[in-house]
Amino acid sequence: IKPNQYCRITEYVLRKAKEKGTYNQYNYLEVGKQLCYPHYLKIVEPNHNNGSLADNNKQDYIIIKKPLSFGKKISLMTRVLYEKQRIEYNILELISNHFQTILKNAEP
């Protein structure tokens, strides 16, 4: 079913919406009316994209950043300054707080 297709509301659809707890928000729906597919999913299958199998296999990933060495810091600062001045044609930002923010955003 494509997003521009429609689904007819049936007794079963209304029962599913009540079971999922979404019927109260959309209590104006009646048997025989139609819903576009994205709204059908939102009302009748609100957990459609929250696959339970994916939750069971999900692992928590923790990213541990190694501190940059002095040489890597110099390389990063040089690259950021070059890009800002030569490639983006910006005025150099030499206020320390602003420059630190620029460096943090540029870190790999």
Report on the architecture of this protein:
- This is 16763_t:CDS:1.
- It comes from Cetraspora pellucida.
- This protein has 108 residues and is mostly helical.
- It has two domains: 6-56, no CATH class; 70-106, no CATH class.
- The chain contains five helices and two strands; from the N terminus they run βαβαααα.
- A two-stranded antiparallel sheet has the order 1-2.
- The radius of gyration is 26 Å and the shape is rod-shaped.
- The relative contact order is 0.10.
- The mean pLDDT is 76.
Which SSEs are present, and which pair or pack?
Layout: E1 6-8, H1 11-20, E2 34-36, H2 37-44, H3 52-57, H4 70-87, H5 96-106
Antiparallel strand pairs: 1-2
What distinguishing features does this structure have?
single chain, 108 residues, mainly alpha, 2 domains, two-stranded antiparallel sheet, 2 strands, 49% helix
Q: Note the main sheet.
A: 2 strands, antiparallel
Structural class: mainly alpha
**Overall geometric form:** rod-shaped
What's the number of domains?
Answer: 2
Written as H for each helix and E for each strand, in order along the chain, the element string is: EHEHHHH
Spans of 5+ residues with little confidence (pLDDT < 50)?
Answer: none
Number of distinct beta strands? 2
Summarize the structure in short.
The chain has five helices and two strands. It has helices at residues 11-20, 37-44, 52-57, 70-87, 96-106; strands at 6-8, 34-36.
